[in-house]
Amino acid sequence: MGLIFKVLEICYKCGVKVVTVYAFSIENFNRPRGEVKGLMAMAKVKLEQLVQHGELLDRYGACIRVLGERDLIPDDVLPFVDRAVEMTKQNKEYV
C-alpha cells in the first residue's frame, strides 16, 4: 500500500497522536524543471492513493492539511490535494 500508510499505522499503534509529513519545501522549486515535474507527478500518484484508501485515513482519524503556497502546485495536481484535504476534514488528527 505504501510506506506512508505503514508509518502511520505504526505511529497509531504506538500512541502517536500527531504526524507531520514534510513532503515538498519551497526550496525544492529551485531544482531543475524536469525534476520538479517528476516530483509533482509522484505527489499526484501518492495523493491519488491516499484518496483511494480513504477508509484507512478515517479509521485512524487522519486529517490532511497542506501548508504553504498553493498557487505553486501545478493545476493537474491541485485537484488531488483538494480531494485529500476535503475527504479528511472531519477527522480529528493531523497528517
TrEMBL record:
Belongs to the UPP synthase family. GO terms for cellular component: dehydrodolichyl diphosphate synthase complex; endoplasmic reticulum; lipid droplet; membrane. One of its GO terms (biological process) is polyprenol biosynthetic process. It comes from Xylaria bambusicola. The lineage of its organism: Eukaryota, Fungi, Dikarya, Ascomycota, Pezizomycotina. One of its GO terms (molecular function) is ditrans,polycis-polyprenyl diphosphate synthase [(2E,6E)-farnesyl diphosphate specific] activity. It holds the Pfam family Prenyltransf. InterPro entries: UPP_synth-like, UPP_synth-like_sf. The keyword Ribonucleoprotein does not apply. The keyword Transferase applies. It comes from the Eukaryota. This is Alkyl transferase. Keywords: Transferase.
